[in-house]
Amino acid sequence: MRKAILIAALSGTLAGCASSGASSNIDGGAINGPARLCFNESAFMLPSNGLIVDARSGRYDATINGSIGLISFRMTESRDFVPPENYGPVVYERDDMVVRRVGEGRTSLAVLAKTRDNGIAREELLLRLDHNFGFDSISMEDFFSGLDVRGARTNPQTCTRRFTYG
Q1: From which residue to which does the signal peptide run (predicted)?
Q2: Where are the domains positioned within the chain?
Q3: For labeling, which of 87, 108, 121, 130 is most exposed (least CB within 10 Å)?
C-alpha cells in the first residue's frame, strides 16, 4: 500500500518535469532496483530500495523520476544544458566528477564530468539533479557512488535499461 501511494504521489508530482514532446520509456509500470540505468553518456546504479516511476526521452535530453527509500529525485542528462551564470559550492567530488549546487534552493545540483582538452582540465555539465535528500534513506555520498559519468559509453553491456535522447 505504501509503495502504491508513493508511486501515485511521485507520478503526479514529477510528471510535469519531463522534456516537452518526450515519450515515456517505462512499459508495464515502475522499475524496481537494483538496476543499472543508462543515458547516452552516464549510468546510475539504482539500489534495491530504489524505484523509478517515470522516464522520458526527447530530442535534447532524457529524464528519470523516482525515489530511493523516502527521498525523491529527478535526474536529467543532456548535451544542450545552458550552464548557469554561477555555480554554487561543491557538495561532492571525486576524480571523474564534481557536483555543485545551482539555483536558489538547496535541492538543485549540477553534475559536471571532469575532462581534459589538449591537456587543460575542464568541467563539462552533464546531469541536473533535483532532490529532497536529508532523510535516513541514503546519504549524498552513497547516491553519487552509484553514478558513473561515462558508464553508458564505456560499459554499455552492463545497462539494465537505457534512456537515450537525440
Answers
A1: 1-18
A2: 2-162
A3: 121
141-158: b (≥16 Cβ within 10 Å) or e:
eebbebbbbebbeeeeee
Q: Which residue has the cell 559536471?
A: 112
Residues in the chain, how many? 166
Q: Could you read off the pLDDT tens digit of each residue along the chain, which spans 166 residues? A: 444 434 444 444 444 333 344 556 676 679 999 999 999 999 999 999 999 999 999 999 999 999 998 889 999 999 899 888 889 999 999 999 999 999 876 789 999 999 988 889 999 999 999 987 664 567 788 889 999 999 999 989 999 999 999 9
Task: Spell out a b/e string for 24-56, using b for 16 or more CB atoms within 10 Å of the CB, else e.
Answer: ebbeeebbebebbbbbbbbbbbbeeebbbbbbb
In degrees, to the nearest 5, what angle opens at C-alpha 162 toward C-alphas 51 and 157? 110
CA distance 16 to 19: 8
